[in-house]
Amino acid sequence: MIEYLVLASGIFFLLFLVPWTGRRVAAILGWGAMVLFLIAEIPYYLSQNNILYPTIAVLGIPFLFVTARRLLDGDRSVLALSRGAAVAFLIYAPFAYLPPLGDWLTGVVTGQVIWLVNALAGSATFLDWNLIGRFGFQIEIILACTGIQSMAIMLGVAGAVPTSTRQKVFAFLLVVPTIYILNLLRNVFVIIAYTGQWFPYLPEIASNGEWGYESFFWAHNVLAEGGALVALIAIAYGLFILIPELGLWAGDLYAVYMGDFAGLVRYRPRSGKK
Q1: What pTM was estimated for this model as a whole?
Q2: pLDDT in the model for residue 6
């Protein structure tokens, strides 16, 4: 049922793209459904010892408040942000909600990951179409392991502002092959590190009760996700060079949200006394 929040969010964002009087409210509902999804997923991520997404979910509450207010005011930078979110959903939705397409991409990535693991370290085997075995450990490749979410987000960023055909083509070439290759290497690193037990450290914070999980925690939740964040920032910088308007838009967004967040922190309700 939680996944329907993502679908609802996407539908609202698509309604935002339609030129009608309620498009700003549709965008607010789209962001609201997305934040609710992240909040609902907090127990799952905590069970995986993942603190990044729970942190994003908590920060999403003030983000939603500021975004809703700015959308109602017609702020151009926040309207562009919502347009980028709608573009990202259009790219991601076919893989997420058409099982044959999503399974095809997952299967392709699984096969390529096994080939790379065997080329670099050996001993990886197919246990199922998306299940990899190595040294008695099992690793399931799911849609989130294909990089399609990151590709959709970065292409959404590129689609937030008007661009020429040339800029669109080069943005695609910068985002999709780069993220796809880096994501393959990320999966390979996590599998080799986990099955090889490279990081059996601090089980009091890194273990979920499963033997050997500590290595997965450090490899996947810390090193791989940290590296992915750095890579996305670098790709975003490349997009800013390719599409200068994106840099101006990012500066406007920063000013809007940092200014409003600071206002929320400084805000004190009146006591009623003169």
Answers
A1: 0.87
A2: 86
Could you give the CA distance from residue 96 to residue 89 in angstroms, rounded to a whole number? Answer: 10
Give the whole-angstrom CA distance, residue 89 versus residue 98: 13
Q: Which of 174, 138, 137, 128 is nearest to 155 (CA)?
A: 174
Q: How far is it, in rounded angstroms, from Cα 162 to Cα 155?
A: 13
Indicate the average pLDDT of the chain.
91
CA distance 160 to 59: 22
Tokens of 142: 């799911």
**How far apart, in whole angstroms, are the C-alpha atoms of residue 87 and residue 179?**
18
- Percent over 90 (pLDDT), the chain: 78
Residue 193 phi/psi, 5° resolution? Answer: -70, -40
Q: What's the CA angle centered on 76, arms 267 and 7, to 5 degrees?
A: 90
pLDDT in tens, 244-254: 999 999 999 99
For tokens 């992240």, what's the residue?
38
Q: Identity (one letter) of the amino acid at 104?
A: W
Task: Write the pLDDT tens digit of every residue in 4-16.
Answer: 888 899 999 999 9
Cα angle vertex 226, ends 215, 98, to 5°? Answer: 90
